[in-house]
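WARN no homologs supplied; continuing
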Amino acid sequence: MSAAFAVMFAALVAGQNSRITHDEVLALVNGARERSGVSPLKKDPRLGRAAQARADDMARRGYFAHNSPGGKTPWDFIKETGYRYEAAGENLATGQRTAEEVQRSWQRSSGHRANQLNRRFTETGIGIAKTRSGVVVVQIFASPLLRREGVDDAAVNDGNVLLVVEHVGHGRGVQIFGEGVAP
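OK structure emitted
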């Protein structure tokens, strides 16, 4: 009987962890942007696919980091979808049970808040995946590469790309991945 209770309890906890939805996360982030006088982010399906692929990769391979164990970066996931960007950033969260908890965690971190309120970012994608210990939430922010007449894309996207990536794990504190240049 105690084994059956343990299975039911584990299922209940896993069910609680799945209450985070893409739309709730986006609504909370856009609410913070609007309160700060920043235009809301628009969903981009390619960024959504990149964020979901990141979340699924972390869940499947059991890691929580901006670079995969094999060295794959968020920018690699974005590029695989065909999305071309001038600037991009990523927020990660794990250990929270609701979208509100994710947003509170991100708002307590200056780097996460900076990504959310960055005026350069106009589009986003969100990925959520179940892990052995709960869920991982990935939000990718970007501004699309705008074609300029007479300017080669490579010259526009030559590495002068804003990158502020951070992640937070519930109970783990804030870990800063860094600031620098995205390829």
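The first helix runs from residue 2 to 17.
OK
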